[in-house]
Amino acid sequence: DSNSDSNSDSERETVLNEALLELNNLIGLESVKSEIKKLTDFINVQKRRETTGRSTSSSSLHLVFTGNPGTGKTTVARIMGKIYYGLGLLNTSQVVETDRANLVAGHLGQTAIKTSKKISEAMDGILFIDEAYTLVKKGDILAEESIDTLLKQMEDHRDRFAVIVAGYTEPMKTFISSNPGLESRFTRIIKFEDYNPNDLFSIFESLCQKGDYSLTDSAKQKVLSIFEKLYEQRDESFGNGRLVRTLFENTLEIHSSRLALNPLDSLDIIEEEDIA
Description:
Layout lengths: L1 H24 L4 H22 L11 E5 L5 H14 L8 E4 L1 H4 L6 H13 L3 E5 L10 H16 L5 E6 L1 H9 L2 H6 L3 E4 L4 H14 L3 E2 L1 H16 L8 H21 L7 E2 L6
Parallel strand pairs: 1-4, 1-5, 2-3, 3-4, 6-7
């Protein structure tokens, strides 16, 4: 009945607005945000055209996320679940996260079953495959079977689920170009840049705020200069958000050791000497 339709419409709208807000509140990732905005704008206009009887262009819901570890790919994939649901493109906002180990079995025949099982878990939502390039190795027939199964299901259930594949930039390019079926389905690539030193510092500060800690000015300077140095020296294993978390955890340990020696020091204030 139309009443439950409008309920679900308003629920979807709420979820969509929350998701877009969540996306905007993420630190950094400007190019990612603008790509997703382009995609949602396009989908919205096509929906408006459809309701007025005009012809529409369909856009593939499948996405490729490329970039180094710790750049927020998994976080954004979860937000995409809400966005697709909010836009009325999928029936749930769920995102099923998986990787090679959960798709490829030890024997031929079993891999197709294992991959199909994961896909049916993700049905009506998103299947997120991290480090997807591990599914393409020369002469690896088990991984080939997984890809073939995935492509067939993407064809058979075209509007029922979306696939987001993620991983390092270069291996992901190789992965997509390794198979014409992948190339034709994954046409939208979103690149996750490394966080710059100011972004890294903002993430560190937000961890402090969440944990009820505050930094002295000299501690702030030290944190920023550490990130500047690490950013200068970075390679493709640069940890991004994970690196920040590690520094934060180390800082709390040193802070605790200092308090053990000086019980009267502040429980909340992180000094320059607490930052390794």
